[in-house]
Here is the input.
Amino acid sequence: MMKRNITGLFFMLGCFLYAVEKPTTLEETCVTAECHTTYKEKAYLHGPMELNDCRACHKPDEPSQHTWKLLQSVTDLCQSCHLEVATMKNVHEPLKTGDCLQCHDPHSSDNKFFLHEKTIAEQCAECHDPTAHKAFLHGPVAVGECTICHDSHSSDYTGLLKVEPKELCFSCHTITADELKNFEYIHEPAKGECVGCHNPHGADNAQMIKGGLSDICFSCHEDIQDIAKAAKVQHNMITEEGGCLKCHTPHASTVKKLLKNDSQTLCLSCHDKPQEIGDGKTMPAFTSELNNKMFLHGPVAEKDCNGCHLAHGSDHFRLLIKEYPPKFYAPYSVDEYALCYSCHPDALTQTERTTDLTDFRNGNQNLHYLHVNKEYRGRTCRACHQTHASNLPKHIRETVPYGMWELPVQFEKTETGGVCTPGCHVAKEYDRKKPVDYSRQQGTVSRVE
Ligand code: HEC
Ligand code: HEC
Ligand code: HEC
Ligand code: HEC
Ligand code: HEC
Ligand code: HEC
Ligand code: HEC
Ligand code: HEC
Ligand code: HEC
Ligand code: HEC
Ligand code: HEC
Ligand code: HEC
Ligand code: HEC
Here is the structure.
C-alpha cells in the first residue's frame, strides 16, 4: 500500500526536474508545457484539475521559494467538496484514521475514481483478501464487485453494507425471497441472517456453505446427529455429506418439517431401486409393494411413511418407530407389537373370547388370539397381512413365502366370516354368526418354516 506522509504539508512544487526555471509569481499557472504536465496525461482528471485550479487545494507558502501548503489536512480538504462520503454511522477505518489518499490520487489517474489500483477489487485487496483460497466464490465477488454490497466510505449498516443486512441477499435472490415470504414452513435460522450458513464471499463448499454440508446442520441439530450415529438400525445416507438435503430444504417448504416433498415421494426417490443393506443382502425395489395394489394401508394411503418409519435412524427392525417382530414366527408378547398397537387396539391379541373386538373370529373365539398369542411360534401379523398394500380386503396377503415357494393363501371374505385354502392346512372357514366346529373338520395344521 502506498503510505503517504500527511504531517509535513510543506512540499516543493518544483520544476527543477525538468531543468526549467521555477515560477516565482502567483500569476503563472502550474501546469504548463514544461511543468507538471504528467498529471494531465492520465485518462481520468479530477474536476479542479480540468480547470488547472491548483489553488483549490494548494496555497503558496513562500512564492519566491515556490513552496506550497495544502489548504487543510487531506481528509478535511477532500471533504470540503465531497461532503457526503463519511457522514454515515459506520465509517470505514481508513477514512477515520488515515486519509483519502490511501485509495485515491488527488490529481488524476489511469484508473476510474482516481484509484491507485486498476480495479476496485484490487484496491480493496491492498488491505483485505476475502477471496483467499476459496474454492467456490460468490458470483459478484468472482467478478470483483465488492462495492455492489459494500460502501467504500461509510454506511448506516454494519459491515459497511449498502442495504440493511436482512435485505441485502434478497435484493438479488428474489426466488429465495419469494419462498421465505410465501411458503408455510420457514426454517428458523433463515428468518435471521443468511450469513449464519453462507459466507457472503465464498467458501470451500458449494453454495458457499460455511463448514461441510452435514456439519452445518449438525452444528445446531446435535440431537439428530446422536440418533443417526447411535441408532441400532441406521439409515446410512443421513450422515453422508449432504444427506440432510436429500429430504429437507434449507430455507422453507410447503411441506411440514421442511420436507422437500411428501414422505412417500421422498422415500421412493431411492427405494424405487434395490438397495444393499449390508451382509451382502439386497432389499428389493419398494415400488412393487405399492404398484397396482387395490387397497393401501391407512397411513400409506396418506403417503405418510413416517407413521411407521423413522427416517433418521431407529432402534427397531427396519427403522420402525416401535417394536415389531423381525421374523415370521415370534413368541407372543404384547410389547413386540407396539408398532401395530400404536394405532390399533391391543385387545386384538390380548382377549381370547370376544363378540366385537375383531371380525377375525369364529363365534366368540378370537382367531387373532389363537394365531398370534402363543408362547412358541406365534404367527406374526405378516403371516396373514401385507403391511403396506394389498389386493385382498383387510390387507390379507395373496401368498406367504415358504422356502422358495410363494404359497397361495386364497382368502375369501364372506358375509359373516371368511375362508382360506392355503398350502399349510386344508380349507379353513370361520363364521361369526354360525361358528364352525373345527373338531369335526379333518386335515392337519402344518407349519410354514
Ligand atoms: C483536489 C485537491 C488538489 C488539487 C486541485 C491539486 N492538488 Fe496537488 N496535491 C494534492 C494533495 C492532497 C497532495 C498530496 C499531499 C501529500 O502527499 O501530503 C498533492 C501533492 C502535489 C504535489 C507533490 C507531488 C505529488 O504528486 O504528490 C505536486 C507537485 C502537486 N500536488 C501539484 C499540483 C498542481 C500543479 C496542481 C494543479 C495543476 C495541483 N497539485 C492540484 C491535492 C491537490
Ligand atoms: C474544490 C473542490 C474539490 C476538492 C477539494 C476535491 N474534489 Fe474531488 N471532485 C471535485 C469535482 C468538481 C469533481 C467532479 C464532479 C463529480 O464527479 O462530482 C470531483 C470528483 C471526484 C471523484 C470522482 C471521480 C469520478 O469519476 O466520479 C473522486 C474519487 C474525487 N473527486 C476524490 C477527491 C479526493 C480524494 C479529494 C481530496 C484529495 C478531492 N476529491 C477533493 C471537486 C473537488
Ligand atoms: C478504502 C479506499 C478508499 C478510501 C480510503 C476512500 N475512498 Fe473514495 N472511493 C473508493 C472507491 C473504491 C470508490 C469507487 C467505488 C464506489 O463508488 O464506492 C470511491 C469513490 C469515491 C468518489 C466518487 C463516487 C462517490 O461516492 O461519490 C468520491 C467523491 C470519493 N471516493 C471521495 C473520497 C473521499 C473524499 C475520501 C476521503 C474522505 C475517500 N474517497 C476515501 C475508495 C476509497
Ligand atoms: C488502506 C487499507 C484498506 C483498504 C484499501 C480497504 N480497507 Fe476495508 N478496512 C480497512 C481496515 C483497517 C478496516 C478495519 C479493520 C478490519 O475490519 O479489518 C477495514 C474494515 C472493512 C470492513 C468491515 C467494516 C465493519 O464495520 O465491519 C469492510 C466491509 C471493508 N473494510 C470493506 C472494504 C472494501 C469493500 C474495500 C475496497 C473498496 C476496502 N475495504 C479497502 C482497511 C482498508
Ligand atoms: C454479495 C454481497 C457482498 C459482496 C459482493 C462482498 N461482500 Fe464483503 N461482506 C458482505 C457481508 C454480508 C458481510 C458481513 C458478514 C458478516 O456480518 O458476517 C461482509 C463482510 C466483509 C468484510 C468484513 C470482514 C469479514 O470478512 O467478514 C470485509 C473486509 C469485506 N466484506 C470485504 C469485501 C471485499 C474486499 C469484497 C470484494 C472482493 C467484498 N467484501 C464483496 C457482503 C459482500
Ligand atoms: C448483487 C447481487 C447479489 C447479492 C446482493 C447476493 N447474491 Fe448471491 N449470487 C449472485 C449471483 C449473480 C450468483 C451466481 C448465480 C449462479 O451461479 O447461478 C449468486 C450465487 C449465490 C449462491 C450460490 C447459488 C448457486 O446456485 O450456486 C448462494 C448460496 C448465494 N448467492 C447466497 C447469497 C447470500 C447469502 C447473499 C447475501 C449475503 C447473497 N447471495 C447476495 C448475486 C447476488
Ligand atoms: C440453515 C442454513 C442456511 C441458512 C440460514 C440459509 N441458507 Fe441458503 N442454503 C443452505 C444450504 C444447505 C443450501 C444448499 C441447498 C442444496 O444444495 O440443495 C443453500 C442454498 C442457497 C441458495 C442456492 C439456491 C437454492 O435455493 O438452492 C441460495 C441462493 C441461498 N441459499 C440463499 C440464501 C439466503 C438469501 C438466505 C437468507 C434468507 C439463506 N440462503 C439462508 C443453507 C442455508
Ligand atoms: C443456526 C442453527 C441452525 C442450523 C445451522 C440449522 N438449523 Fe434446522 N432448525 C434450527 C432451529 C432453531 C429450528 C426450530 C426449532 C427446532 O425445531 O429445533 C430448526 C428446525 C429444523 C427443522 C424442523 C422444522 C419444523 O418445522 O419443525 C428441520 C427439518 C431442520 N431444522 C433441518 C435443518 C437442516 C437440514 C439443516 C442443515 C441444512 C439445519 N436445519 C441447520 C436451527 C438450525
Ligand atoms: C430420508 C429422509 C430424511 C433425511 C435424509 C433427513 N431427514 Fe430429517 N426428517 C425427515 C422426516 C420424514 C421428518 C418428519 C418426521 C415426522 O414428521 O415425524 C424429519 C424431521 C426432522 C426434524 C424435526 C424434528 C424431528 O425429529 O421430527 C429435524 C430437526 C430434522 N429432520 C433434521 C434433519 C437433519 C439435521 C438431517 C441430516 C442429518 C435430516 N433431518 C435428514 C426425513 C429426513
Ligand atoms: C437418499 C436415498 C434414500 C432415501 C431418500 C430413503 N432411503 Fe431408505 N435406504 C436407503 C439406502 C441406501 C438403504 C440401505 C442402506 C442403509 O440401511 O442405510 C436404505 C434402507 C432403508 C430401510 C432398511 C433399513 C435396515 O437396515 O433394515 C428402510 C426400512 C428404509 N430405508 C426406509 C426408508 C423410508 C421410510 C424412507 C422415507 C422416509 C427412506 N427410506 C428414504 C436410501 C434411502
Ligand atoms: C403401518 C406401518 C407402516 C407404514 C405406514 C409404512 N411401513 Fe414400511 N414397513 C413396515 C413394516 C412393519 C415393515 C417390515 C415388513 C416385514 O418385514 O414384514 C416395513 C418395511 C419397509 C421397507 C423394507 C422392505 C423390505 O423389503 O424389507 C421399506 C423400504 C419400507 N418399509 C418403506 C416404506 C415406505 C416408503 C412407506 C411409505 C410409502 C412405508 N414403508 C410405510 C411398516 C410400515
Ligand atoms: C400409524 C397408524 C397405523 C399403524 C402403526 C398401523 N395401522 Fe393398520 N390401519 C391404520 C388405519 C388408519 C387403518 C384404516 C384404513 C384402512 O382400512 O386401511 C388401518 C387398517 C388396517 C387393517 C385393515 C382394517 C380394515 O378394516 O380394512 C389391517 C389388517 C391393519 N391395519 C393391520 C395393521 C398391522 C398388522 C399393523 C402393524 C404392522 C398396523 N396395521 C399398523 C393405521 C395404522
Ligand atoms: C392367521 C392370520 C392372521 C394373523 C396372524 C393376523 N391377522 Fe389380522 N386379520 C386376519 C383376517 C382373516 C382378518 C379379516 C377378518 C374379517 O374381516 O373377516 C383380519 C383383520 C384384521 C384387522 C381388521 C379389524 C378386525 O380385527 O377385524 C386388523 C386391524 C388386524 N387384522 C390386525 C392384525 C394385527 C395387528 C396382527 C398381528 C398382531 C394380525 N392382524 C395378525 C388374519 C390375521
Q: What stands out?
A: The pocket of heme C (ligand 2) is lined by residues 46-48, 56-57, 74, 77-78, 80-82, 100, 104, 106, 112-114 (CB under 6 Å).
